[in-house]
Amino acid sequence: MLLRPSLMDDEMDRGYLGRVKRLNGFREKRETTDALRAWDACLRGNVGRVATTELLSHCAAVSLETFSNSHMTLPWRRAITPFHPEIAHGSAEAASIHRISGFRLARDGAYLCPECIAGDHSSAGFSHWRREHQIPGRYLCGRHQMPLRRVENEWAFLEAPVAHLADSVPIAYALMEASCQNPVTKSFNAIGEALMARTAPLPLRSVMRALKRRARALDLQVDGSALRRPLLSDLILDACPTDWLEDVFPAARAKRRGVRHHQLDGVLYLSNAASSVEAYLLASAVLFESPDEAIGAFIAENASDAPPVRRRSKSAPAMKSLREAYVAAEGRYSAVAVRCETSLAIARARLERMGLPNLVRGRAQRDFRNAAVAFYRQGLPLAEAAAIGGVPCADLEALVREAGVALIDVLDLMRNEAALQAA
Ligand SMILES: [Zn+2]
Predict the structure, then answer these.
(1) What are the tens digits of pLDDT across the range 54-93?
(2) Are residues 154 and 29 in contact, defined by beta-carbon separation less than 8 angstroms?
């Protein structure tokens, strides 16, 4: 008999394996995976070699799709791929992907938040490792806005996070500062987050085409021939704080100014994946004006590749799905389009008709959401609400007008009615 703990919210796959291990009194990882395999074979018959991540999804009684999309780093690592991008991360066809690379980390070490640990202990009596903390470029806990701590052990997940508080070290202040304040690092995080929310990868060829188009417009070197134009890798080097760049993409340490760096520059011309997903995110963050623009370009390129039937079936998400995605994406149109697997243009058109304006506009530090809360919920005058969000008054006024489409429709109806009666 195997004791099977309930999966916790955002729990990291390796951390869940650790809880199965500890709950059942196993001493090591191998003993735990052997027991999982035996339990699974007994339950489902002899079904051949099953990936550890799939065994864990059975143990947690959730679909492989749920386990992949909410508990693994696979959607980050496989966000852009040349290899079978049509296969969703958690589909039955992804079995070999799970066997080969399902259990890997997205960055070295294990990251924890002391505040989360304290909160978990007071609410549940134990703590768990969160996937959100293990993503490259994340240095603050999203819940507590507190700096994460790092453990130099990729299997620290087998023990409870609290057991590693003493041997964890704080994230360097420079990394946190870079992550929060630099527009390129923020864009890197936002694009990565939006792509990770997808249930399937984006084809590398679509992303490469979008990046190349933008690089050409900026007159950068877009192929592997003799150097004649400025390099994308130099642009990245100039735009990113060095410590941050070398932490999210360690291969950048070998970059020399004016010299081609194949893992960075190759994202524009190597069709079999020049590098890890972080190189594509870095290129996207420096080439495009905003995360929305980058994601919109990728989705548009991808849509132009998709067969007509597939495009038709995904072209009109229901209002309920759009509304839920809008909430989950905190009002960012491009992320809504990704979640609903539709184009940015379609998402924009439908959301505007629903009176749900884009709350993320441009790269500047403007908090339209806070401004809208101050105006609608707290009842502050427009100018005061705009000041709270750091938003130009005219822009907030435009947002308020966009949110008033239902009233506009009714006013038009009244006008038509009045015209009919007068006729
Ligand atoms: Zn936290």
Answers:
(1) 999 999 999 999 999 999 999 999 999 998 999 999 998 8
(2) no
User: For residues 146 and 130, what is the distance between their CA atoms, to the nearest angstrom?
Assistant: 14
Token representation of residue 332: 């960012």
303 class by beta-carbon count within 10 Å (0-12 exposed, 13-18 middle, 19+ buried): buried
Rounded distance, CA 133 to CA 168, Å? 14
The position carrying tokens 């929305």 is 292
In sequence order, what DSSP letters do the residues of 36-72 get, joined into one string? Answer: HHHHHHHHH-------HHHHHHHHTT--HHHHHHHH-
Rounded distance from Cα 159 to ligand 1 centre (Å): 18
In the reported structure, the alpha carbon of residue 255 is separated from the centroid of ligand 1 by a whole-number distance in angstroms of 34
Residues 6 or more apart whose Cβ sits within 8 Å of residue 190: 291, 332
d(CA 223, CA 225): 6
Query: Residue 112 C-alpha to ligand 1 middle, in angstroms?
Result: 8
243 neighbors 316 (Cβ within 8 angstroms): no
Contact 110, 50 (CB under 8 A): no
- The tens digit of pLDDT for each residue in 195-222 reads 999 999 999 999 999 999 999 999 999 9
Give the residue extent of every domain in the chain.
Answer: 13-101, 110-171, 183-292
- Angle subtended by helix axes 183-196 and 291-305, to nearest 10: 40
